[in-house]
């Protein structure tokens, strides 16, 4: 059948076409494979070159970083070493200072131990002194001793007197010799003052204050009545010396009543060691002023006598001046005449036969000069002696 023949012809052609297509595809695949291989080879070569360059750059940078790191690490090590060395020195110095401080502390502790022992011994001494001061006579003796020491330290020996006696037989502890006598008596009202400081409750304290005020007023009355004696050369006031600042403060500022006003009314001035020292300085200045005043009178008398002597000297000096003036006048006059006499003598020595003998020498001029010389010797014999 014709269709079968066509089919038989077409089928081989189709098969050839298919085979040709397959061959073309195989050839194209081979070419593509070669091209792809070439591309892969080129890419791998480029990639390898790039990686090598990158590795070289990376190694270079890593080398620079390593050098910088090593340099900085070396600097850091150096600084760390220096700081560690300084720290070691400071630690060593601190250790030495600590050792010295420890040694000093030990020495001071030893001294404090000795000081504590001394303070304990002094506390025991103060306790014994307190026991010794309990009798009123012992306190009075201590007060008088302290008063005498203060007067001795502040005033000249001739400016005061201890145990000064009055006409009625009373004896005050001391007087200061100014224009008048200043009586000073030492009092030490300690018993009731101690009760005030040691009282534990208000009633006991008030009772002790009343007893303290009674004691102080008794001392004030005794000083006012016994030692203020203007008729015997004293001032119209006196000092009551209290050897304790605490007792003085209680008298002046305490709540025991107006004891200070009571003392002022009696013309008795309470003084403590500190205030009495200030009073003595003022008294010393006053004594120096009196001494200067007495010396001023002596100086004025001496100046008056010196003025009289100067007047006599001035009169004698005037007489001498007059004599000197007269002597100078006579000297000038005699000198003129002596010049004339010399001229005459010179003329007399010259030989001139035409001159007469009486014309050679001016006899009258010679006689006048001799007379003046004799008068000068009679009026001023001391000139020749000089």
Key words describing this protein structure:
386 residues; alpha/beta; 9 helices; 7% strand; elongated
Q: Based on DSSP secondary structure assignment, what is the total number of beta strands? A: 5
**End-to-end distance:** 210 Å
Helix content: over 70%
Structural class: alpha/beta
Compact description:
This protein is 77% helix and 7% strand. It is α/β, with parallel strands linked by helices.
Per-chain topology:
Layout: H1 2-132, H2 136-154, E1 160-165, E2 171-177, E3 181-186, H3 191-198, H4 202-227, E4 238-241, H5 245-253, H6 259-265, E5 268-271, H7 273-349, H8 363-379, H9 381-385
Parallel strand pairs: 3-4, 4-5
Antiparallel strand pairs: 1-2, 2-3
Description:
This protein is of the alpha/beta class and 386 residues long. It is 77% helix and 7% strand. It has helices spanning 2-132, 136-154, 191-198, 202-227, 245-253, 259-265, 273-349, 363-379, 381-385, and strands spanning 160-165, 171-177, 181-186, 238-241, 268-271. The longest helix has 131 residues, at 2-132. Residues 351-362 and 379-386 have low confidence and may be disordered.
